[in-house]
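ok so heres the complex, two chains, lmk if somethin looks off
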Amino acid sequence: GAGVSQSPSNKVTEKGKDVELRCDPISGHTALYWYRQSLGQGLEFLIYFQGNSAPDKSGLPSDRFSAERTGGSVSTLTIQRTQQEDSAVYLCASSPRQGRQGNQPQHFGDGTRLSIL
Amino acid sequence: AQKITQTQPGMFVQEKEAVTLDCTYDTSDQSYGLFWYKQPSSGEMIFLIYQGSYDEQNATEGRYSLNFQKARKSANLVISASQLGDSAMYFCAMREYTGNQFYFGTGTSLTVIP
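and the predicted structre for the whole thing:
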């Protein structure tokens, strides 16, 4: 079956431009996460969607970052007025709804490598 | 305070030997889950193993096992019979039942030497 799909796989853009990153989660997965991974670093949580609930935006680093999830499926992460420090790999993950044990692992896409010139 | 701490930035192991990757965590929740992921140089994140806070037995998945010491708040990953393909970054993560986030450590880079 299809895994988490992210597009584009690579994006190079000039400083100040807006970018949109897309994530198509595994069918039936109600939870969707966005992370940022800078070179050689761990994963930085950005935002979390669960079904139709209000998203957890606590990880967004600035108001230049926003995300939406349409119809409980596809999600778009938008970065406005990009800065060089936004250069990173942006990873999307999805999981089934967590049960009491919270034992559902996340399934990750291959990421979008964003480079700001 | 860091939720997940991985103190070994880099590790080396001889092929066919066992290796332990350390992970300690910080939570006041009683219900939580611990996860290990592998990230090869190609970049994809691969789920390896899960341990629930109420699980009495250490989790095992093939050559991977989790040495869970709840009182010490540690969840070390043990890889037995290392293979060259095990060379990768390894991330420990935790999810608290009361929250939404998965907290990730900074990772350990494992190199398997032939």
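quick notes: The mean pLDDT of chain B is 94. thats all i got rn
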